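Pasting two entries for a bug report.
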Amino acid sequence: MSFFSSLKKELARHLTIFLVPHNHLRPWRLSFTISFLLFLLAIWSGITIWAGYLVGRNIDYWKTKADYQLLKLKVAFFSDQLRKSHELLDNVRKNDQQVRNLLKINDRKKIITANAGGPLPYETSILRKTLAGKVHEITQQEIYQSVCQLRGLAQEQLADTSEVLQEVENLRARYNATPNRWPCFGPITSPFGVRIHPVYGSYDFHTGLDIAAPPGTPVAATANGIVVLASWAEGYGLLVILDHGCGYRTYYGHLSKILVSVNQKIKRGQIIGRVGDTGTSTGPHLHYEVQFNNSPVNPARYLAKDNFFKRG
């Protein structure tokens, strides 16, 4: 007997199943061939596999949809953050320009590129898609380009801010170095300029101001500086010279007493000596002299605090 004949015989065999109810109903008898049962099993397995496939695809679909919605939210969030960052950077630029205007700082780059500008192509694309409600179409490349652009603008703004801070430091140094107060109070008995010398009676150029004051009157430094001379000088008598930086020096002559020493750092308003009549003098007074870039200038221009920007 061949294998196929035996298999055919086995598949043709019947199985009988009796279903006996626990009541008055008569029993049921179900008879099936082996081949029919195998056919039912194959159909059941196919249905189960197909159902599993459909459920899997459905799960993948909802997972993909959830990932898509999450991606849309992320893109919308980053786009909004980029927009806010650009707005913040624009406000910083405006404040920087206002400070520059106050400090009168020229920006050659802004002068060259004046009345020009506009958004870049990818910025226009992002804005167009956002306005159209198609945030999900904004690509990763567009976001990356926007971030790079924002980083570059921030670096430029940092450089501009550093320039402004340097100018502020220069302005502060210039203010501290500029004489802007009276060294002592009293009437001006001899102004700056050509005069008749009170001792020799000849015409000469007076390089400072003579301020009359009682002997021993405190003499104050008119700006921050360093003492470069504190000793006797011909004609000046006891003399203190302060170097303030930024081209400024001040002279305090005819003192009766010197209260500072060479290389000592001095603050504006600090007492450096006392009024006297040493040297070539007709009475107690202070010879106050201001030099800018080694040339005498009129000290009267530096007695008022609001004139500290004036030179020469």
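Entry 2 (this is the one that rendered wrong in the viewer):
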Amino acid sequence: MATQQDLQTLLRFLSQDAKIPLASAMGKIKDLQAAKLITPDNIAKSDISGLQKVLGDEKLARQVLNAAKRVSKKRTNSDLSTSSTSTIPSPIKRVKTGFGAPMDPATFEASLTLPSSNLTASELEDVVLFTNRAPLVLAVAVTVLKYTMPTQPLSSRLSLAQAVCSANSQSKAKYLGIQNGASAEDEGWGEGQPLITVLNRQIRVMKRWGYTWKEEPEVKEEDLVSSQATVAGDDAQDTQETVAPDEPALWGVDLEALKKTNGPMTVGARQGSTSELPIYRPESTRAYLMKSFGIKPSGDAKPAKALAGKKAAEEKERNLGLLLASLDLLCQSWTPILSSEDLDKRAWGWYCSVRPEVNSGVAGWGGKGDVKLTDILRLRRTE
């Protein structure tokens, strides 16, 4: 079975060597994988008619086949040159997962664990946090997704939450005149990727086929590697449909990164291009959440001495746990009577009613304010 590294190498070959637009290349990954055409060498050994059946277009098939032969020939010449000048084998580099050190899915998910709290609702009511609006959007989205898409792992929920937060921020920036010009979504860079709705806003996603994060007995090492595989896209028919809650694990697509990756590139820019897929990384979302919720100092109190680094971080992590506990209690009260769709729609209204008050217009961009947990708890369903 193809590993995540294999699939990313194939995606780079299609987009950089075969000159296929990245969005289109993503949609061909699954078909090539099914035909066991994972490497340029595999593709170079195939015939045009077979490749045409896989890709569905003769011109595209010739383009990919020619690129594969060119890359394979270049690699063969390089290998011959190396073997003729040296008998010392080059050191074998340890293969890493696509986004850092080797890590199995269960360990990866555990590393993303968010703080929690055992305080009761009455104990949470007196807490007032101090933050700006974006982290609150993330916290609401991550929590609501636990109930609207319960089969999604935490890594996916964090990625999807960042996708909806970024989309919301872009819309607001455009409305305020902070951001000019069409967004990547407006220019069609999301075409070909599935859509889901989070907080009543549609976002583009990638399906993480084969990603198994729950521990199962007698899992072989090779299965742990293959379970990291991410297939970046689906066939044309499937990608136009809305993803159901029980679909495979998902990534939120970073359309702006997708646009930059496949935009005009100089030679130097191409050499420095990243091998990562254009997605919102859950580690970054988690790190942002963990440091975003402080406690507003009392107005009549003397300025307190700032907490030391470690203590300040622990305080903010604790605050995040309190917020997430309040949001959990809110969602738990409504889940028995609301469908996933209705819960998602209502969640955006909840956010709007408890978000920090900031100055209107550009002056309020990034501004901070109070988030009263009692306001969140007051939204719970009463018997």
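Dev reply: Rendering is fixed now. As a check, the viewer should reflect this: The first strand starts at residue 128 and ends at 132.
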